[in-house]
Design brief:
heterodimer; A: about 375 residues; alpha+beta; 5-stranded antiparallel β-sheet; 14 helices; elongated; B: about 300 residues; mainly alpha
């Protein structure tokens, strides 16, 4: 009993007076920002959709359905009722046999067929080849498999029901599956490129700021010169001339986006290195690399985190721009920029091909921007 | 002032040199060449071609030749468009790009400052919220989304304007709107923030205390101070207009230099790509200089000597 009382007495002042760390503080502020929380949720959903979505949709992103080219988005399953009978007929006509009236009951089509010679069972392939039908078989009038050598019977096939919630593209591929893959690729490139820029910029900026003097001067001059280059053009050059692999794209983007990061980190480092704890570490004989790793870089993280969240949409934008110009990821793989480009060239008569990817990209960019703004307010309240 | 301009222009020479060098070697080290066709050329013809274009010389020699020609304003022949020199192509393409770019910039500045100032003067009213909301949209949605959607809406569905091409003023409307929308958004945001700050500043309070009419206080004293961040944004704006022009010219099929660049890069047109890089870098440098001079003129506290 006494023990219990004692422990309570010890705990209470601690829980009342304990200072919240910078990160706890930021977390609380971020949580009270409704736009940022909503954006984080949206992003989480989209990331999940991009990550596991492609396994959940029934179509693969690169599967082509030649008979469903540019079908509009629809909640109903394809094929549409009025297309089944004519398509069955035209599939059968290729078999060069005599066809009677096609009848449709439920999801089974049935047509009497006959020929001068015995029916070859291989003619079912003509029907199976179509995206609309499945499990084609020859039967007699009672529904039993047709005896060999018979010259008349019934061709029966199941109608294959396919859903294209977002319609299909100009090659007959499911747009939903492609958008999901596009989300995956765009987010992945955005994150990887930002990480690349982060690693480069933080290291460079921290070294320049910490060592100062002539090293700083030279290193920042280099950044200034690189700054005045029309960088998008260099990214385009890089990507065009060195191939268009996924890896190269995010490296190229990372290489163009690290300059701001280097400047921010350098500025932060200049302040941090005059702090007493850094001097203490120096006095204790800690190596420069050790001080950079242990003291300087962790203390620059606040502004860096904010900058990275605003960098991700920039990287996604750049990737989409490259893909849009046909310089990004290559078919059959796709990204949102590429989908928008395809949509733009098919917009006459198939507007959904443009609108769905465009809306998806816009939502991602909005969410990332709001989240970045929220993080900035949370981590850097004086900058509001 | 003249000395400052001269010094800045001289300072641009090493920057240009670095740009040209990086671009030159990057292009040359890449696999593939302008004469790689589906069917390989006859080796003799290939040899002749290479000799004609100096490709048989070592790379450093070619680089020196290019620098020498560049110093005389010769950007070389285009490889993908036979019978045209790069300068010829630019003579056609550059005016087109500049027309679109400067129109967009002008519209962005006019509309952006007016919207921003309105929002600042009516802070926290519906005008303010409308401007800020629209600006957020304009900044977030990329050019390559706006362009096809505008083209779809006004070109294809309503048929008011041509969906692409070049020729009459009607062809200019959609590209210019597309290019200027994001810039309007940024300029409006900047002007709003700066005007709000300027309205609270000492010199505006003094002007009010003198009893000057609001028109003069806002139009002359507040706006002039509010223009500073907008002017310093002009440099980045020019850069993003250049990027945007690549997209817009590709989407709307406009024969400007942005499209040359993409086509040139895809076709390994060494000289055309190099020429575009040189022209664009030059443009960015000169533009930044103009911005700095404007800045000094607007803010007498800034001195260059």
């Amino acid at each position: 009993m006494t023990e219990h009382v004692l422990s309570e007495q010890v705990e209470e002042p601690a829980s009342l007076g304990a200072g919240r760390s910078l990160w706890q503080d930021a977390w609380l502020r971020l949580r009270s920002n409704r736009a940022a929380v909503a954006s984080a949720l949206v992003l989480l959903l989209l990331a999940l959709a991009g990550f596991i979505g492609p396994w959940l949709v029934p179509h693969s992103y690169d599967q082509i359905y030649p008979q469903y080219v540019r079908v509009p988005a629809s909640l109903e399953a394809y094929p549409k009722q009025d297309r089944i009978v004519p398509d069955f007929q035209s599939a059968l006509e290729r078999a060069r046999i005599t066809i009677g009236d096609v009848e449709l009951s439920g999801s089974v089509v049935r047509a009497p067929v006959s020929d001068d010679e015995p029916l070859d069972p291989r003619i079912t392939r003509y029907v199976d080849r179509s995206d609309l039908f499945d499990n084609a078989r020859l039967q007699d009038a009672d529904g039993n498999p047709l005896a060999e050598g018979a010259s008349s019977g019934f061709m029966v096939a199941d109608v294959q029901r396919l859903r294209f919630l977002f319609g299909t593209d100009a090659n007959g591929r499911d747009l939903l599956a492609r958008i999901l893959i596009g989300i995956r690729i765009s987010l992945a490139i955005g994150l990887l490129a930002s990480f690349m820029a982060l690693a480069l910029g933080v290291t460079y900026g921290a070294i320049a700021g910490y060592f100062g003097g002539r090293i700083d001067n030279v290193m920042m001059r280099v950044v200034d010169v690189l700054y005045s280059l029309p960088f998008i053009f260099f990214v385009i050059l890089l990507v065009v001339f060195f191939g268009r692999s996924f890896v190269l794209i995010f490296i190229a983007i990372g290489f163009t986006e690290w300059l701001d990061m280097a400047r921010i980190v350098r500025g932060q480092t200049l302040t941090i290195k005059r702090q007493e704890y850094v001097q203490a570490a120096e006095a204790m004989g800690v190596s420069s690399a050790g001080i950079l790793k242990r003291h300087v870089i962790p203390n620059t993280l606040g502004p860096v985190v904010v900058f990275v969240t605003l960098l991700v949409p920039k990287a996604i934008l750049l990737e989409s721009l490259l893909s849009f110009l046909g310089l990004g990821v290559q078919e059959p793989l796709t990204s949102l920029g590429l989908l928008i480009a395809e949509g733009a060239s098919n917009m006459r008569g198939a507007a959904w091909l443009l609108l769905y990817p465009a809306v998806t990209l816009t939502v991602i960019l909005f969410a990332l921007n709001f989240l970045g703004d929220g993080l900035r307010d949370a981590l850097d309240p004086k900058d509001r | 002032m003249a000395a400052y301009v001269l010094r800045r222009l001289l300072g641009a020479v090493p920057t240009m040199f670095v740009i040209v060098t990086i671009a030159f070697f990057m292009i040359r080290l890449a696999p593939g060449g302008p004469f790689d066709l589906e069917r390989p050329l006859d080796p003799l013809i290939m040899q002749n071609l290479e000799r004609a274009y100096n490709f048989d010389k070592p790379l450093w020699h070619q680089y020196l030749i290019y620098l020498g020609n560049l110093a005389q304003g010769d950007l070389g022949p285009s490889f993908t468009r036979r019978d045209f020199s790069v300068v010829d192509l630019f003579r056609v393409g550059l005016p087109v790009s500049i027309t679109i770019g400067s129109l967009s910039m002008l519209i962005a500045l006019l509309v952006g400052t007016v919207l921003g100032a309105l929002a600042a003067l009516r802070q926290n009213s519906w005008v303010d919220y409308l401007v800020v909301g629209t600006a957020t949209f304009g900044i977030t949605i990329p050019t390559f989304v706006i362009a096809p959607i505008l083209s779809l809406a006004f070109g294809v569905m309503m048929g008011w304007l041509p969906a692409g091409g070049w020729g009459t003023w009607k062809h200019m409307v959609l590209p210019v709107v597309t290019l200027s929308l994001p810039q309007i958004a940024v300029v409006a945001r900047l002007t709003r923030g700066a005007t709000i700050e300027a309205l609270r500043s000492n010199h505006v309070r003094t002007a009010r205390a003198y009893g000057l009419p609001t028109r003069v206080v806002v139009g002359v004293h507040a706006l002039r101070a509010a223009m500073l961040p907008v002017v310093s944004y002009l440099g980045p704006a020019a850069a993003s207009l250049l990027t945007g022009s690549v997209v817009v010219e590709t989407i709307f099929g406009i024969p400007g230099i942005g499209r040359y660049f993409v086509q040139g890069a895809l076709g390994r047109d060494y000289t055309l790509v190099m020429g575009t890089v040189v022209v664009i870098a030059l443009f960015v440098i000169v533009f930044n200089l103009i911005v700095d001079i404007l800045y000094a003129w607007l803010d007498p506290r800034v001195r260059y000597d």
